[in-house]
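Budget justification note: compute hours in this period were largely spent on complex prediction jobs such as the one shown. Inputs:
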Amino acid sequence: MIPTELRESVPAFDDVRYMNTGASGPTPRSVLEAGQAELESHEWESAGDDGPYPHAFNLYDTVRDSIASFIQTTSEEIALTQSTSDGINRIATAIEWEPGDVIVRTDLEHPAGVLPWERLKQKGCEVRVVPTENGRIHRDDFTDAIQGAKLVCLSAITWNYGTVLPVAELSAEAADAGAFVLVDAVQWPGHLPLDVSSWDAHAVAMASHKWMLGLWGAGFLYIDRAALSRLEPAQIGYRSVAQMSSGGYELHSGAQQFEVGTTSTAPYVALDSAVTLLEDIGLPAIESHILSLAELLTDSIDAERIYSPRDPETGLVTIQVENPDTTIERCKDEYNLVLRTLPEPSDAIRASIHAYNTREDVEILVEALDRIAKWTLSAHSPLIVDYWQGDWVGTSWIRVYTGDKSIRSIRWESFWWTEIESSLTGLGRPGVGDF
Ligand SMILES: Cc1ncc(COP(=O)(O)O)c(C=O)c1O
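Corresponding output:
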């Protein structure tokens, strides 16, 4: 099914070459239809059958089983959540924090892995940030930072560089130092094969709307059974307990104690359907397809412009460009390519390559980046008003808006943008408000 049929099953791709799965993966038709059918089944059909509650409870059990087997753990170690941020928060709020407690994170965490710890500063907690370089963690700094830490939070795949962090090694080291290890792994499932138990982390937060190709709203949280004794869920509801009576209640013995009340069943049914789809294609096949296209991309671009590993570890490839916002806009307008900028590194764009991307997508991206780089001025040069090529012997016309607020038409006898740009240097750039 790779990649043509999968691509054809996503109507969103009719008009675009989508390379932004790291943000959100549009859902294949069969997965979306499973979710849609579930809405009717739950809201209408179950009313005359077992009723919506037994229907939903059976379904949550089925989905916990299916996601557990997909990531190679047991259902007792899975809690169904709404998102990765939700999973991270359920852990952050289940720990008893005291002033002076130390939290360690890398400087590459997504806001989902930053904000809960920022808030804990209000309780007097200290947050130590481990520096990284090009998506690689400084091991000595990590070792120093984790001393005396109560919790360590790190990503499995860095969202801005596409590097794979050595999660098992870092988890083992942090656990030895006495810390609770929480991994943000939302960029992993559906992207690379995953054996979550092999990381020996205490908790791992994930969601279905990126590489899993599921709907928004179905997160899942792995919690190591042995780590449950270190946590006390901040919220409680009828889904958290195995039994309750006037005398009290008993929490579920597994991660399910982190579930609370009604949530739509549709995103979870879609997740189950996505698991089947991805397993039918096969995770090793998906991984090798992604890595071969990522390699084609990194091989086709100047080495110094690739911020991700030259030998790709994932389908996330970050590329240095002169004007990221303009590049993204022009990729979309002129080449139908959907990519994104990043807050850090801020002089780059990120391409995400998944099973539905093709060699042609990558070739078009390479061509687009090449042409856009040639025809985009640097931040200090005049602003281009328009340009056109007069003939095939190398004559170009360009109109620029300069620092003295004039618009000049200039004839250039060169195809080489760098030559044109160097001749423009000194004409100045108009300031904000000059228009
Ligand atoms: C590494 C990482 N963590 C967390 C998130 C947020 O995930 P969610 O929307 O499931 O909370 C994202 C993506 O947006 C991400 O890339």
